[in-house]
Amino acid sequence: MSPKPRIFSAHSHTAPLCTRTHQIAALILVTATFFFTRLFDQSFPPSPCYLDRHLNLHVAKTNDAGHLLWPDRGYGSHLSLKIYVYDENEIDGLKDLLYGRDGSISSNACLKGQWGSQVKIHRLLLESRFRTRKKEEADLFFVPAYVKCVRMLGGLNDKEINQTYVKVLSQMPYFRRSGGRDHIFVFPSGAGAHLFRSWATYINRSIILTPE
């Protein structure tokens, strides 16, 4: 005769209930832990070394000339970022990127349409209080070019734009110094940096603005 199968009821192993007594005990434990932690902290104040290190994090540092050092001078009321704007006459080829191969395209003509941001950003930085005329003190470098406008108005074709950019970049020692990381380029419209076909080779580490 085969043994009868065991029937396991859903109530065979009932989990212990969390009673009100358990809840009160847990609350007392949490309160006691908080109390003793605060008491322990007050009994052992931070060491002078810790305080000095902590306070130094919030003290603005200056150089011998009294100027705030980075990053302090890059934030809040102490903001004094320095931006150098390349002049159109200092680099051979830069004028071509601004006015076309024969210089017949005016900046006012390039203010119109979607590409106007290239001109507006350039003019804004020329008048900015953050502009510096000393490359050695600059944090960032702005490379002016109206290539979207110049291309649309027939001042340069795609091949000429590419060749001219390469020519211009080869004359920038500060660009080579940082690998282009601190240089700003503006390429408006959906084409973006592809207006410079070799951008991925030459300015892939640079700051690229693509306003639309």
UniProtKB/TrEMBL annotation:
<feature type="domain" description="Exostosin GT47">
    <location>
        <begin position="80"/>
        <end position="193"/>
    </location>
</feature>
<comment type="similarity">
    <text>Belongs to the glycosyltransferase 47 family.</text>
</comment>
<protein>
    <recommendedName>
        <fullName>Exostosin GT47 domain-containing protein</fullName>
    </recommendedName>
</protein>
<keyword id="KW-0808">Transferase</keyword>
<dbReference type="GO" id="GO:0016757">
    <property type="term" value="F:glycosyltransferase activity"/>
</dbReference>
<dbReference type="InterPro" id="IPR040911">
    <property type="entry name" value="Exostosin_GT47"/>
</dbReference>
<keyword id="KW-0812">Transmembrane</keyword>
<keyword id="KW-0333">Golgi apparatus</keyword>
<dbReference type="InterPro" id="IPR004263">
    <property type="entry name" value="Exostosin"/>
</dbReference>
<keyword id="KW-0735">Signal-anchor</keyword>
<dbReference type="GO" id="GO:0000139">
    <property type="term" value="C:Golgi membrane"/>
</dbReference>
<dbReference type="Pfam" id="PF03016">
    <property type="entry name" value="Exostosin_GT47"/>
</dbReference>
<keyword id="KW-0328">Glycosyltransferase</keyword>
